[in-house]
Structure to design on (715 residues):
């Protein structure tokens, strides 16, 4: 940390009277040392960050900070104001002002040190020493954590600064984080030796009652200061309250996910954030306090009390839905196959809305204007407000534009899943090239994976400190786009385009038995995991064929089969709960009512509650019905131009009556199998379980035909 703050960056008599003037005074010191290349540009970035949320903290502290392309290396400037400056804190003006400047591409080591400083600001001994220190050199040394003992005559400072060497002993003289924060950092940031976040300390077996356990996540827009100060405040308040509290800091230096076992054992959750919490679904089903990051800094004890009160009342958050975008790059220890699936699902999840919007608009265009609407002139040249054909052409052309984004979005967000935001530019460029060379979806998949890999490779290269500020905005986009463009145009583009054309020709030649078998396979895949990865693979395969302005009949048949099969599981569960309600719990019967609407809307996830409760009976039954529906849809030559919509797009379906027959047949098969399999099961001996909780239950009829105590269901 020795190079981050020096005596030249300390002003113990800061005369500014506004936060803007204070930021300028400290920034001018940075600029004088060459740490800031464009003073006004940097101050604009500071002001933009300040506009998001005031940076004043209770205790007389102001921490204006930002990440900026105008910063050459991580830098910290400190100012002390005799009169105080208003930074928006509730308790009044700040007299200790820290201006934290990080390059847009700062490396993790420096950001970790800045984060350690943020934690140190929660230490009253540290702030008291800064208020009493008499010269700039010693103030800089104190902030660095290597302050020498105070002069004997300086009684106000001596006691506090005399402890500074102990921080140096632990933190080291090599610029590592001050030791006062090292313990907290190692607890919450570094995790264990296996890379996972540490587990909460288990209470001894003879200790009754065990401490209340809380897991927390902190994050702020820049991920430098508030993130770590909130973590430190929560940990300190947790110790005072006698609770076990473990924090996951989602900061600029990255983050290590909490151990799933720690989350499972937690009695409550605190989410203190001003940006979305990554992987928030991990905390579903627990008492949760969701608030801004400053609340954790200013009143951590109140948040702990609030989450304990929620736990006492039994308040929990709802489980996350099963159809959320995958935005994670893979956890530590995951195999390559698992990571690859998550990367691909990231792209597919962001692509699906474009498919739905574009496909439905195109389908409506055909429905209103007929199948010649694709030959209509541009509505820019000819549009008649009173003519239906003009409106049809408008819808069709808007849908065509939306479809034009499919492959770039797919490639861009596959790269995003691998390399985060730096992967977006080369991913979109590679996806657009895939369209240009007619490589289609296969080209988009390849472009996304290549883009992510190239960005990850570039990020591993060690670069001079002077270039770090321009890495994310110039160097990485430039190099990665050039490499990806070269590979797509010159090396792999043509083979992929040939493979795409071969697949298109094969689909166009499907007929008879081959088409029926393909329909059955699509039905099995659509119903295997009820909206999960296998379902999405089949759905993406189907939508790929119609993602053109003039899809082939074979492509529209495949789309029809996929949607029909996807409607079967929820409709079948709804039918089964209607005809044999005694085989299901009260909660399942309620879910069955909603499943009618979900299934009719082509939302396969409506069957998830049933599949999760009894997978060995529900999943095979759903797959059997889906296979029947998919095969019949192909045999009936049903076609579909829209990628979504369920029964609401029946007017756009070719052979709609036979299509509905295919759906009904599959629903009956699935419902019948579920009823049969559930009727054959034997109740296990044991105590009754409450409805809708824990082990899935069923009602056992008595000799008189009435319902009696519910018995746990066994597989």
């Amino acid at each position: 940390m020795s190079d981050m703050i020096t005596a030249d960056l300390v002003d113990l008599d800061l005369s500014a009277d506004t936060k803007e003037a204070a930021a300028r005074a400290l920034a001018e010191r940075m600029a004088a040392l060459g740490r800031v290349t464009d003073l006004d540009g940097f101050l604009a970035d500071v002001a933009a960050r300040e506009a998001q949320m005031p940076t004043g903290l209770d205790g007389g502290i102001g921490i204006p900070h930002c990440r900026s392309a105008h910063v050459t290396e991580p830098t910290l400037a400190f100012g002390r104001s005799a009169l105080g400056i208003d930074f928006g804190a509730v308790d009044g003006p700040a007299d200790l002002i820290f201006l934290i400047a990080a390059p847009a591409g700062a490396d993790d080591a420096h950001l970790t040190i800045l984060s350690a400083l943020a934690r140190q600001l929660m230490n009253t001994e540290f702030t008291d020493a800064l208020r009493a220190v008499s010269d700039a050199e010693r103030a800089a040394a104190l902030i660095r954590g290597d302050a020498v003992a105070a002069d004997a005559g300086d009684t106000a400072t001596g006691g506090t600064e005399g402890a500074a060497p102990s921080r140096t002993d632990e933190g080291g003289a090599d610029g590592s984080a001050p030791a006062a924060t090292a313990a907290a950092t190692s607890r919450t940031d570094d995790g264990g030796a296996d890379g996972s976040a540490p587990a909460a300390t288990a209470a001894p077996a003879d200790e009754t009652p065990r401490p209340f356990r809380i897991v927390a996540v902190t994050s702020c827009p820049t991920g430098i200061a508030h993130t770590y100060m909130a973590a430190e405040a929560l940990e300190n308040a947790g110790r005072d309250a006698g609770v076990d509290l473990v924090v996951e800091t989602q900061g600029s230096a990255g983050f290590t996910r909490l151990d799933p076992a720690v989350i499972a054992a937690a009695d409550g959750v605190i989410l203190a954030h001003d940006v979305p919490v990554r992987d928030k679904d991990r905390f579903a089903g627990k008492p949760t306090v969701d608030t801004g990051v400053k609340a954790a800094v200013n009143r951590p004890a109140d948040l702990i009390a609030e989450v304990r009160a929620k736990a006492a009342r039994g308040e929990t958050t709802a489980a996350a839905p099963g159809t959320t975008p995958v935005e994670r790059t893979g956890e530590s220890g995951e195999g390559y196959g698992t990571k690859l699936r998550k990367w691909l699902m990231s792209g597919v999840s962001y692509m699906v809305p474009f498919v739905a919007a574009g496909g439905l608009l195109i389908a409506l265009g055909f429905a209103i204007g007929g199948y010649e609407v694709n030959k209509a002139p541009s509505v820019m040249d000819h549009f008649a407000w009173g003519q239906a054909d003009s409106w049809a052409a408008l819808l069709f052309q808007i849908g065509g534009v939306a479809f034009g984004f499919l492959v770039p979005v797919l490639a861009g967000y596959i790269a995003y899943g691998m390399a985060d935001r730096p992967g977006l530019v080369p991913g979109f460029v590679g996806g657009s090239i895939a369209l240009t060379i007619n490589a289609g979806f296969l080209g988009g998949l390849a472009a996304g994976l290549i883009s992510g890999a190239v960005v990850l490779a570039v990020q591993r290269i060690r670069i001079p400190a002077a270039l770090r500020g321009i890495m994310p905005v110039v160097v990485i986009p430039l190099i990665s786009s050039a490499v990806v463009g070269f590979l797509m145009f010159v090396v792999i583009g043509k083979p992929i385009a040939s493979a795409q054309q071969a697949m298109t020709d094969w689909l166009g030649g499907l007929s008879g038995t081959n088409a029926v078998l393909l329909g059955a396979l699509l039905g099995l895949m659509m119903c295997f995991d009820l909206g999960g990865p296998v379902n999405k693979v089949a759905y993406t395969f189907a939508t790929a064929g119609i993602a053109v302005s003039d899809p082939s009949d074979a492509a529209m048949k495949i789309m029809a089969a996929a949607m029909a099969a996807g409607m079967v599981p929820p409709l079948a569960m709804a039918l089964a709960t209607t005809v044999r309600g005694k085989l299901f719990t009260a909660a399942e019967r309620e879910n069955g009512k909603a499943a009618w609407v979900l299934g009719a809307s082509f939302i396969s996830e409506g069957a998830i509650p049933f599949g999760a409760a009894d997978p060995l009976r529900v999943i095979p039954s759903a797959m059997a019905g889906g296979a029947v529906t998919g095969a019949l849809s192909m045999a009936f030559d049903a076609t579909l131009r829209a990628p979504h919509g369920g029964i609401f797009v029946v007017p756009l379906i070719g052979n709609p009556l036979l299509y509905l027959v295919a759906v009904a047949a599959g629903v009956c098969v699935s419902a019948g199998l579920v009823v049969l399999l559930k009727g054959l099961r034997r109740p296990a001996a044991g105590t009754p379980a409450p409805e809708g909780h824990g082990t899935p239950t069923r009602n056992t009829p008595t000799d008189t035909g009435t319902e009696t105590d519910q018995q746990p269901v066994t597989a």
User: Anything to note?
Assistant: The first strand starts at residue 10 and ends at 14. The chain is about 55% helix and 10% strand.
